[in-house]
Design a protein that fits this description.
Blueprint (H helix, E strand, L loop, with lengths): L3 E7 L2 E13 L3 E5 L2 E11 L7 E7 L13 E13 L2 E13 L18 H4 L10
Antiparallel strand pairs: 1-2, 2-4, 2-6, 3-4, 4-5, 6-7
């Protein structure tokens, strides 16, 4: 079993996916920002490989539909990874934008499910950027 898969959805997007068992939901955090109220729910999944890894993933405003899942569910999560600098330190955030049960009927093992286009706000796509990557 692979820790992560890269799936090309469109010519402009490369999507990462991780599969594992949900081992814990962390407390929901709510707040108010300049764009209105927000909520963040983090959860921990553990990969199922020879050397399992634990990964903390966040879901903002229930974009991944966490209410449909519970601890010990085997899931496949579409993720975006982003790092940013604050006061000379770097912080990395793993954000879920899609989530499905790994043993979901209708998604044959070894084949890639069909995905909807990711949320533009999460992709941070800059059309004026002329870099090739």
């Amino acid at each position: 079993m692979h820790y992560e898969k890269w799936i090309k959805v469109q010519q402009n997007y490369i999507i990462m996916e991780i599969t594992g068992r949900i081992i814990q939901f962390l407390p929901e955090v709510k707040g108010e920002g300049k764009n209105g109220p927000w909520k963040k729910q983090e959860f921990i999944i553990e990969t199922q490989e020879q050397y399992p890894k634990k990964v903390c993933i966040s879901s903002w405003n229930d974009k991944a539909g966490l209410s449909n899942f519970s601890e010990n569910d085997m899931v496949t999560v579409g993720i975006n990874i982003e790092s940013r600098e604050y006061n000379g330190r770097w912080f990395t955030d793993v954000r879920a934008w899609r989530m499905a049960k790994a043993d979901q009927p209708g998604v044959p093992q070894g084949e890639n499910p069909v995905y909807s286009e990711p949320d533009e706000a999460l992709m941070n796509d800059n059309p004026t950027d002329d870099l090739p990557f």
